[in-house]
Design brief:
331 residues; alpha+beta; 8-stranded mixed beta sheet
Length: 331
């Protein structure tokens, strides 16, 4: 596809074209992704005008994670719920910011999907204009699955069928997979649409870059500390932004490895499995990379027991993840 053709292909048109390749496709993804696209345009506008509209800083409250809620966290959460709430095929909305899911309709009433999301990852960095983003996962609820919304989402019969993120940086970048490769779109403000800029994005197999907050190194398990010493001795470069969307986006484009280990004060890890690790793992693997929670433990094989479960994360280029895994297996 030529660059001109790409730049005339909107996100919605691309998803519709993909769905036409599959007889019996219902158009569910196009409806859901259209709603996420609309929400992200609104959130991106709020991010750009955050200081002008005085929506920086915290609310004075903590969320279910025990973290200070930022004003834009709350606004972004409400925007996404408003945009997705009218989609008839969504049964539940599950946000990092909310203790319990927002139930919209039962499976028998057409609620075939749940959308899980971190409305504004990295929001504490907004006051210094660091790139932040929205992370989302679309989970198909298993036929006949009953029980509480939490039971339905965590049930083995339910599975992740799409994932993506929107990075609000120098441009608004929408990266998505529906299980058929990773595709990147950029918001063209002149026409108000996300347009295709890269099909079938592939992460480089290797690159000597690691992304980790080394300030906590003395709290890491020994295997991570041994890896860092090896990386220092072998000419690796450190790149760490402190916003998962921005760090993973750079890793996806440039290669290398993103690492967020457990620490002595957070032995379970810090990143949320359902809202951060799971969708990012699907993207990385669809782009040809790897993601693990520990040596010999693929992230996407983990079966979470609760909606807000946390987990250690290692993801990126296949060879670079393998290098980290080698040291973890020796620990």
């Amino acid at each position: 596809m030529s660059k001109i053709q790409q730049n005339l292909m909107s996100l919605q048109s691309y998803v519709l074209a993909e769905e036409r390749e599959y007889p019996g496709a219902t158009g569910d993804f196009s409806w859901i992704l259209s709603a996420i696209s609309l929400a992200s345009k609104s959130i991106g506008n709020k991010v750009r005008r955050a200081r002008i509209e005085d929506v920086l800083g915290d609310m004075g409250d903590t969320n279910v994670q025990g973290e200070q809620q930022q004003k834009l966290d709350v606004l972004s959460n409400e925007i996404i719920k408003a945009c997705l709430g009218s989609r008839a095929n969504i049964g539940a909305l599950v946000s990092e910011e909310d203790e319990t899911p927002t139930v919209l309709r039962s499976h028998q009433d057409g609620g075939r999907y749940a959308v899980l999301f971190d409305p504004l990852d990295g929001s504490s960095n907004l006051d210094v204009s660091v790139g932040v983003g929205t992370i989302f996962s679309i989970v198909r609820l298993g036929d006949g699955v009953k029980g509480s919304p939490e039971d339905m989402i965590l049930n083995p019969a339910s599975r992740q069928v799409a994932a993506g993120y929107v990075l609000y940086g120098s441009s608004s970048v929408f990266v998505v997979t529906t299980g058929n490769g990773v595709h990147m779109f950029v918001l063209d403000n002149s026409i108000g649409s996300f347009v295709l800029v890269k099909e079938n994005l592939r992460i480089p197999e290797t690159n000597k870059i690691y992304s980790i907050n080394e300030a906590y190194a003395d709290r890491f398990p020994g295997g991570y500390r041994d890896y860092l010493k090896w990386a220092h001795d072998n000419g690796y470069t450190s790149r760490y932004i402190g916003s998962m969307v921005a760090d993973v986006h750079r890793t996806l484009i440039k290669g290398g490895v993103f690492i967020y280990p457990q620490t002595t004060d957070r032995p379970e890890g810090k990143l949320r499995y359902l809202y951060e690790a799971m969708p990012m793992s699907m993207l990385i693997e669809q782009a040809g990379g790897r993601s693990i929670a520990a040596a010999d433990t693929r992230l996407l094989d983990v079966k979470p027991k609760s909606l807000h479960e946390r987990i250690p994360v290692v993801m990126g280029s296949s060879e670079e993840v393998q290098n980290v895994e080698r040291f973890l297996s020796e620990d």
